[in-house]
Amino acid sequence: MFFRNLTLFRFSPAVATDLDRLDEALAEHRLRPCGPLEMFTKGFVPPVGRGEGEPLTHTVKQCTLLTVGGEDKLLPAAVINDELQRKVQKIAEEEGRKVGGRERKRIKEDLLTELLPRAFVRNSRMSVYADKKHGWLVLDTSSRKSAENALTQIREALGSFPAVPLAPEEGPRVLMTDWLATGNLPAGLTLGDECELRDPATATGAIARCRRQDLDAEEVKEHLRNGKQVFMLGLTFDERISFVLGEDLIVRKLKFLDVVMDELGDSHEDARAELDAGFALLTLELERLLGKLEEWFGLPRPADS
């Protein structure tokens, strides 16, 4: 249940009200299996259970969980090209002629029609939740492209969903560089053991990556004195959550520490009770962390238009 990465968007109070119809809207956009000649399908699947009648959302207090699903056919271009070359060569040998571009294109289309029904299918799932009280849309991915694709799915289901990327008033790179250089971090925040430093002056500037490293070490400070800035920084919040924060404000390698996991316990009656407990704990912990990100970097919630 616990998210491993956080890509974040914000939405206004008016948009939060519109999310009350989310379960009804998603019902018409359930994930369906890939057809024989389809490369992929996208849709929504139940956060818990696999039955046809299972709800597509799960709400605890002000937070609503949903799962964006997909099925993709695995048909590598190399396989198609090898088969195409074999057919073209066979025509050249048997008929003594070259295959033109138009005929080659037709042969390739015929190959797709022949091979697609036999291709393996890969399933994908992405957990997403909306905090309607505070205006956060939280996606369990570190890929901006994947997050945008999932957001598009939600928008298509709702007809409109004006969630926007984060717009920090404080430059994340500058602020995190200051944290690392001075050791003057906000209350409750401590340095982890990982960072990525880059020279921002040039597109191909030097990059220094540290893992399992004391970030107070002199060699790290020397990189900063030489003009490098922080692009990723490992942090621990209130000794309860560790993560790596990027200058794009994507939270990577999110981990809930033992003190949090001990609060979850392991005595749950069924999968739904376990989901309830896990989701409640997840959203409570992240409410505090996201509130601090909002404070540190100045991440305003959009106002109603």
From TrEMBL:
Its main location: cytoplasm. This is Recombination-associated protein RdgC. May be involved in recombination. One of its GO terms (molecular function) is double-stranded DNA binding. It comes from the Bacteria. Belongs to the RdgC family. It holds the Pfam family RdgC. GO terms for biological process: DNA recombination; regulation of DNA recombination. Keywords: Cytoplasm, DNA recombination. InterPro entries: RdgC. The keyword Cytoplasm applies. It comes from Rhodanobacter denitrificans. GO terms for cellular component: bacterial nucleoid; cytoplasm. It is found in: Cytoplasm, Nucleoid. The lineage of its organism: Bacteria, Pseudomonadati, Pseudomonadota, Gammaproteobacteria, Lysobacterales.
